[in-house]
Amino acid sequence: MTPEFIIVSPQERPHIAYVQLNRPKELNALNLQLMQELRDALQLLDADDNVRCIVLGGNEKAFAAGADIKQMAGRSAIDMYNVDQFTIWDGIKKVRTPIIAAVSGFALGGGCELAMLCDMIVASESAKFGQPEIKIGVMPGAGGTQRLTRAVGKALAMEMVLTGKFISATEALQAGLINRIAPVELYLEEAFRLAAEVAKQSPLAVKMAKESVLRAFDSTLEEGLHFERKNFYLLFASEDQKEGMKAFMEKREPVFTGK
Ligand code: CO8
């Protein structure tokens, strides 16, 4: 079935897929259907050998202004429990292909959390990041208190989460939340440029490296080092390792096949 709230282009560029959040009138507010469509699309792209990197974007005014407040407003705690929307987020977290968020305008609440669930963030000069849930009587629920704190540290995370203050792209770059800033008319192109840098590497090595970096947040140093070492050894079973090292010695560019 064609998704209603996202647009999927599996081969926007060679080996790069583009997924666009597409509820512009609601500033891409993340309702349940949008999140289900996004999870399904990302999982399909993840299973596609031709896709080596995914760019996830919105539009110039908004990446996403958060969870859909109108959809949530009347819900009880038991409704929230039964809907269990975070299993959808868990499904996105399992995607092995790197995802780059291309953020312009608002990335608020669940929108900021979705950007942080991605592996890298390229922002336009107009981007605004925030966790304003406190202003509507709740708090972040999709990782905001955890991923934001790990990215920017306690002082700024506390201020953003307790006051709902937005930060600019420049502040987000200084704080370590994002990777790059580009002018509004170029930020998407910049995200594709970064995606191309990833897509030209061995897809196997990229997936295992992503998995290993993420493990740094979920484990002790010792466990993380052990996990990294196993993946490092495992890559010596790949043709890409042979090709990559041979190409280096032959002073030519490697041709990676993902095998
Ligand atoms: N949910 C539903 N509708 C929204 C949302 C939203 N989060 N954000 C904007 N909209 C709608 C507005 O209601 C408006 O619709 P309408 O024209 O029908 O009234 C339309 O989008 C345009 O918005 P505005 O007129 O308000 O545009 P402005 O440029 O004046 O303001 C703002 C832009 C500042 C972004 C403002 O819209 C705003 O404050 N939005 C809400 C931001 C917010 O509080 N986000 C956090 C939501 S809670 C959350 O994300 C919890 C996450 C944890 C669970 C994740 C599960 C998915």
Which characteristics define this entry?
6-stranded mixed beta sheet, single chain, alpha/beta, Lyase 2-enoyl-coa Hydratase, Chain  A, domain 2, 4-stranded mixed beta sheet
Structure description:
A 6-stranded mixed β-sheet has the order 1-2-3-5-7-10, sandwiched between helices. It contains 12 helices and 10 strands. The model has no long low-confidence stretch (mean pLDDT 97). It folds into 2 domains: 6-199, 2-enoyl-CoA Hydratase, Chain A, domain 1 (Alpha-Beta Complex); 203-249, Lyase 2-enoyl-coa Hydratase, Chain  A, domain 2, CATH 1.10.12. α1 packs parallel to α4 (86-93) and α10 packs antiparallel against α11 (221-234). 38% of the residues are buried. With 259 residues, it is of the alpha/beta class. The two termini are 31 Å apart. It binds octanoyl-coenzyme A. Residues 26-27, 29-30, 35, 65-70, 85, 106, 108-110, 132-133, 136, 140-142 line the site of octanoyl-coenzyme A.
